[in-house]
Amino acid sequence: SPSHATGVDSYAAVKAAGRFRYIKRTDSVSTTSLVDRLLASPKIEQAADHPHGILSTQERSPYTATIHYVPTTRMITLFSDGRRPNAGDKVVYIDGAFDLFHYGHMEALRQCKQIGQFVIAGIYEEEVVRRLNKVDISMPIQTLHERVLTVLQCRYVDEVVIGAPFAVSEQYIKSLGIHVVVHGRHDVDPVKSLPETHDPYR
Q1: First-last CA distance in the chain
Q2: Phi, psi at residue 88, to the nearest 5°?
Q3: Is the Cβ–Cβ distance between 166 and 202 less than 8 Å?
Q4: Which end of the chain has fewer CB atoms < 10 Å from its terminal CB, N or C?
Q5: CA distances from 30 to 35, 61, 82 (A)
Q6: What average pLDDT does the chain have?
Q7: For the whole model, what pTM was predicted?
């Protein structure tokens, strides 16, 4: 664990409170590249004059390097166990951006696994995420394929839909054999952001 100059664990207080959770890093997704994108986002650029100073993308350590992920079917296969729903399994579907996978995402997926035996995660394309997050044009930070790999590595997920639609139709539900649809809250009106679609969750 990272420590202060005094040798004290930086997360000591969080661990003592029983609120520390460790999420394993996703192989083939470059942490350095994600930091670069975060630093290059409009919000960070606006904070360039912050009194504490924020490193620009040019101020990089000579000991770090960015790994550019190349999406391949083999890579996706390595992350997927290829399991199919068994007869009698309740199939639960949850969709979203799943950008910068965090504990909240994992907890939502865990609860989906408690509802049914087979969990499908639908992951939005970049354009859908941007239009649903008009207040933050830098979203999503991760590419679609990076988000796919990150979600696939979660133990509670059995399958993903790459580039899932926002509006879940009856035909879509039937084609995937879905029994339960789970959906989170949006801070913006999706109908205004996606006028060509509708909000099936109202």
Answers
A1: 44
A2: 95, -10
A3: no
A4: C
A5: 9, 15, 25
A6: 76
A7: 0.67
